[in-house]
Amino acid sequence: MHFHKSLLVLIFGCFFISGYSQNIWQAQHNSKRYVVKVNNNVVVNDTIYLSVLEQGYENIPLVIKQDGDSLSADNDSYGFKLKMLVLNNFGKSTLQPYNTTPFSLNFKKVDSVQPLYFPQHPKKPYPYVVEDVKFNGNSTGLTYGATLTLPKGKKKYPLAVLISGTGQHDRDYSYSGHHFFTVLADYLARKGIASFRVDDRGIGETTGDFSLATTLDFANDVSEAINYLRKRNDIDNSLLGLIGHSEGGMVASIETSRNKEVKYVISLSGVAVNGLKMLELQNAEILKGLHKSDGLLNKHMELFNEMFQTVYDSKKDDSLELKLEHTVGNWKQKQEKGTIEALNLHDGRDMNLIYRYARTAKTNWYRYMIHYNPEEFLSKIEVPVLALNGEMDIMVLAKENLNGFKKYLPKSTDLTTKIYPSLNHMYQHCVSCTNEEIPELDEVFSQVVLNDIAKWIKQHNK
């Protein structure tokens, strides 16, 4: 993620001097924390220290100077300027990164630096039961760490296993401080629905090597979670279902197609097109966000699709780099010099593209993903399915993937689909709707979607 290095900070403190020895102040704007550390009762010519933790700036020294009727703290080398009215109290603030619109901050005294927090994150005490557990997988041989969330005062309730998307995630499905599954589990529990969320392989309390795993392996992990839940006689397993996000939706499809214990499926931006089509749709949409001309976009996608097809047709023991070099070389021979330069593939730079892509494309996970055929699994599902997508999702495009559910599920399947306007891949109301914007948004999970999920589960529980 790119950040500006020069910051102008305007601090408007309260009109008094603090008389006690608190020396850490912290504020948060979107997914960035701003921390000021001061010695007790600093004066002019003393040094304070500014950190912008998510930008990688830590303890930048700023020397306090008199600046007209106020005070400023400067470090010209880093381009930081902090302006305040009163020493030892920072209070409400306005931050203006270089050449951008100012925004408000509210510094508060803290005993130590606090983690990122978002308004949707639940606060204790919870009106439900939260139990952290560990269990062993009989087939996988792994140990899993997980959290079970149960509604209070209910003997009968639906139960959902939550499945995260692409990448290695903890049980809370954390990204840039947002806890996607914590918010979901909290909302479901308040509506009388239990949930079970598990650390991915190799993170938290779950063992295993994530780098060697495929989507099918993740489905095996879900199988182990279901087996564990079925063995517990203190919880209700009568309506056990799966809620999967993105690749987690694929995992849910795989597991449901083979496991009769699954009674319903909720796919949040789940993939329902084949692997090659998914790559084409994703990359075309991402390239559009770079504002390339239609001609260049088409040329870029033409090259990408040929590279994707090369990987798809290759065997595991093939020299993938050589095959990709041949593919890219043949494609370049057919192009004009200006096109090659515009796509930054001249002077040997195409080799960087080839070797970066080959490193990913040779992994077990990628090879399984590119050969994924949704019909193989969706055609076997007979339980109710709720398939949702954000209209502005550029990773799993709404129309094409929801049409996949309609196409491949048996005609007799109870299927509900819905597209939400203005929501991105993580079900946040977005502005630019790029992947780079996702961590910057305060919203963790759209309340409208949360409500629809709970409402649909409760209707099917009846």
Question: Can you walk through the features of this model?
Answer:
With 462 residues, the chain is α/β, with parallel strands linked by helices. The chain is 31% helix and 24% strand. It has 12 helices and 20 strands. The protein has helices at residues 180-190, 215-231, 247-258, 275-288, 294-313, 320-333, 337-342, 349-361, 364-370, 374-378, 398-408, 447-461; strands at residues 7-11, 24-29, 32-37, 47-52, 57-67, 70-75, 80-84, 92-97, 103-106, 108-109, 128-136, 143-151, 159-163, 174-175, 178-179, 194-198, 240-245, 264-268, 385-390, 415-420. Strand 19 (385-390), helix 11 and strand 20 form a beta-alpha-beta unit. Helix 5 (294-313) packs antiparallel against helix 6 (320-333) and helix 6 (320-333) packs across helix 8 (349-361). The longest helix has 20 residues, at 294-313.
